[in-house]
Specification:
heterodimer, A: 253 residues, Rossmann fold, 13 helices, globular, B: 507 residues, alpha/beta, 2 domains, 47% helix, binds iron/sulfur cluster, iron-sulfur (chain B)
């Protein structure tokens, strides 16, 4: 691993839920807990966490974003490892916090970013022992911030390749934005929706049953559009897919 | 306005032979203008709001086909990233451009001194109007009636063609793409490929309208049609106007990079030449071209070198077979001397390759005209609000999903996404008294406390059943934009994860 993160699996991680998951997408963080526990990791849920602040920042309100950035750091600073099922929010910690904060706070942000994992990164790094099996054909959408800000293209694919019986059919333009874009989705809804249609069309062309991604926000937007246009494909967060694929070796109490 | 082309010269006109009018534009009056007002060559003074223009753009016939074409081009140009040798040029190019910007005035002074020593007349224009005044002044002083032009985005900033035409001077765009948009009375939709938004069939139909006859429709035929029409104009024009890609401060050499060779004709045939450059086009040294030209060509078209590089050092000297008698260089500011002093300085590193536009999914989806500005796409969304004469483009930074593709695509590594975010903050700070400012403050206050956050979850859970999609799409506010085209997120699940997590581990 040359990504600067720990090479030994942390025994305990703090889960960063992210606001979209809290508001409407309980599945991904729940699946994350299940998968991490299957790996023998103990998951804590720091109670003080809310949102990373990205919605405010990208809407032109950096001061409000900074307020939430400070809260985020204060909440997670005491943990050795942080895991999240929202790649985009983690990219905010990586890229936006050092721009918003200065001095000691910036250093704290950089240090904390270095011990934070997006879900697929964590499971790819440490989940080799998992037995995963699921008969499914899926296609994968790279969320923008995970792909371009975190530079993470391989972990989700590596993880999918570890699922027995699963076929990944790559779509054309997998790295092209789905059109969500935070408040862009409501400020310029027609453009946002047209971009979702392009994405759903490409995904549909693969013939895959599931459109998988690692960001709840993209999926919320894409599923919302697919519901209206009756696109055949269903969206699924990669954590949920991996949780579906878990072959448990112990009887669970 | 275009119908002046064929006015017969009255018998009583003075004995001088009648001046030739443009051949290339013959029949222009026959072309029925079908483009929407926001695609016009001259941008309307009161632009419609972005949601309206973009909606209209999405409804335009051809927009979907443009998206398909541009997506193919994007895959060709940007999938796979930068090959190692170009990546190395990219590092060096990015640094050369930043070096330039650290002392822009110094480099401009050196350029001016060198160019003047070479016999070039150098003009500085603070505003687009100043530049128009200078150029029309040169035209009038030299009794110019017909101008041939090669690509220049700086002249678009000043709507130069319209101003020259108002002064009775005919202007012919000689770059094929520019010629197409000129005939269609549009402005360029892309900074390198002005007519990228037009399919071959659309161009064919346009040329047939212009020619009032059937034309063979292969791409080469259409290009040949334009070339044939343009040939006579090169010969008869009194003045050439071109852009500049790079102006070397150490030698005063102006370099133009083109695919068609028209710049060679424009700069060498007419007796007067005016090169127009925005002030950031200066580069420190002529040898920097070895980095910047291949970088520009690769970023723009994935070619290693373009077909033509035209270099201008000065007017024709005694014994030289061609070249203009007068060579003028107009250096346009239009707010750039302020930009270079501020936090957005790096945007002036731009070498106008257009790759951020091709890489942008919003640009590909709505097309370049939908930005309602001279420059569209990510570079336009950043540059337009910063230029001095484009106040109405201040909201353009919001026309982006902040996906970051433009940054990866930029040959000189301009942090366009960060700039878009910062410009949004500038925009919000400048528009006082908006209720949304208070909403964001309230939001930050609420979400800076676990209790406030929990309350939001409860409110979301309760509001879900009360505000189904059918209702929400009729109410004002952000929910409407969402609900118009998408099912609502399952807010009945708000807070469900935390409840699940707590329940499974009773304390
Ligand atoms: S900003 Fe970068 S990518 Fe865009 S046109 Fe300028 S140089 Fe090219």
């Amino acid at each position: 691993m040359d990504n600067g993160r720990s090479e030994t699996m942390p025994g305990t991680v703090a889960l960063f839920v992210a606001c979209v998951a809290d508001l409407a997408y309980p599945g991904p963080p729940r699946a994350c807990v299940e998968v991490l526990e299957a790996m023998g990791v103990s998951v804590e849920l720091p109670a003080g966490q809310t949102c990373c602040g990205q919605p405010a920042l990208n809407s032109g309100y950096p001061r409000q974003a900074t307020t939430l950035a400070r809260r985020w750091l204060a909440t997670f600073a005491r943990y050795d490892a942080v895991v999240t099922t929202s790649g985009s929010c983690l990219s905010t910690v990586h890229h936006a916090y050092p721009r918003l904060l200065h001095g000691a706070e910036r250093e704290q942000a950089v240090a904390l970013a270095a011990r934070s994992w997006e879900f697929t990164q964590f499971v790819t790094d440490f989940g080799q022992g998992l037995t995963l099996r699921l008969d499914a054909e899926v296609t994968y959408h790279d969320s923008c911030h995970m792909l371009r800000t975190l530079g993470e293209r391989s972990s989700p694919r590596e993880l999918l390749s570890r699922i027995d019986g699963l076929t990944l059919v790559e779509m054309t333009d997998s790295g092209v934005c789905c059109g969500f874009g935070g408040t862009f989705a409501v400020k310029l809804p027609d453009v946002s929706v047209a971009m979702a249609d392009h994405k759903l069309a490409q995904a549909g062309r693969t013939g895959a049953r599931y459109l998988v991604s690692a960001d709840p926000a993209c999926l919320m937007h894409l599923q919302g559009r697919a519901d209206v246009t009756r696109a055949g494909i269903r969206t699924r967060h990669i954590a949920e897919l991996v949780s579906d694929a878990l072959v448990r070796t112990e009887v669970r109490a | 306005m275009p119908d002046a082309a064929e006015v017969p010269t009255p018998e009583s006109s003075p004995p001088t032979p009648p001046r030739r009018r443009s051949t290339a534009l013959l029949g222009r009056e026959r072309v029925v203008v079908t483009r929407p007002d926001w695609a016009a060559a001259t941008i309307p003074a009161h632009r419609k709001p972005l949601p309206i223009i973009t909606r209209a753009a999405l409804d335009q016939p051809g927009t979907a086909a443009t998206h398909t074409r541009l997506s193919g081009k994007n895959r060709e140009q940007n999938d796979g990233g930068w090959p190692p040798e170009i990546a190395a040029l990219r590092e060096r190019g990015a640094e050369i451009r930043r070096e330039t910007l650290r002392d822009l005035e110094g480099h401009l002074a050196a350029l001016t001194a060198k160019a003047e020593a070479n016999g070039v007349v150098v003009h500085r224009a603070a505003t687009p109007d100043d530049a128009v005044g200078i150029i029309t002044g040169i035209a009038r002083a030299n009794d110019v009636r017909l101008v041939v032009k090669s690509k220049s985005m700086a002249t678009e900033e000043m709507h130069l063609n319209a101003h020259l035409e108002e002064n009775g001077i005919e202007v012919v765009e000689t770059d094929l793409g520019e010629y197409i948009v000129q005939v269609a009375d549009e402005r360029p939709s892309h900074i390198v490929g002005p007519a990228l938004h037009k399919s071959k069939a659309e161009v064919g139909a346009l040329f047939e309208e212009l020619a009032a006859e059937r034309l063979p429709q292969e791409a080469e035929d259409l290009a040949a049609f334009a070339r044939t029409r343009l040939r006579a104009d090169f010969h008869h024009a009194d003045m050439g106007i071109s852009g500049v890609n790079f102006a070397a401060a150490d030698t005063g050499t102006l370099t133009l990079v083109t695919n068609e060779g028209n710049a060679d004709m424009v700069t060498s045939q007419p007796r007067i030449h005016v090169a127009v450059m925005p002030m950031e086009k200066v580069i420190p040294r002529l040898r920097d071209l070895a980095v910047l030209v291949p970088l520009l060509c690769y970023a723009a078209t994935k070619q290693k070198v373009t077909v033509y590089q035209t270099m201008l050092n000065g007017p024709r000297r005694d014994g030289e077979p061609d070249g203009p008698e007068q060579l003028h260089l107009v250096i346009l500011d239009n707010g750039r001397s302020s930009i270079v002093e501020g936090r957005y300085r790096e945007v002036l590193a731009c070498i106008r390759c257009g790759n951020c536009q091709i890489a942008c999914p919003v640009y590909r989806t709505v097309g370049g005209h939908a930005y309602g500005s001279v420059y569209g796409g990510p570079i336009g969304a950043v540059l337009t609000p910063l230029l001095a004469n484009t106040k109405q483009g201040r909201d353009l930074p919001f026309l982006s999903s902040l996906c970051g593709a433009c940054f990866d695509a930029c040959p000189v590594k301009i942090p366009l996404p960060d700039m878009l975010v910062d410009l949004r903050a500038d925009y919000e700070a400048a528009t006082r008294g908006r209720p949304r400012r208070w909403l964001w403050r309230l939001w930050a206050k609420a979400w800076d406390s676990p209790r406030g956050y929990r309350l939001t979850m409860t409110a979301a859970r309760l509001a879900g059943p009360l505000l189904p999609r059918a209702v929400l799409r009729r109410l004002p506010g952000p929910g409407r934009g969402w609900a118009a085209g998408r099912a609502l997120p399952a807010t009945r699940d708000a807070g469900a994860f935390r409840a699940w997590f707590t329940d499974r581990r009773p304390r």
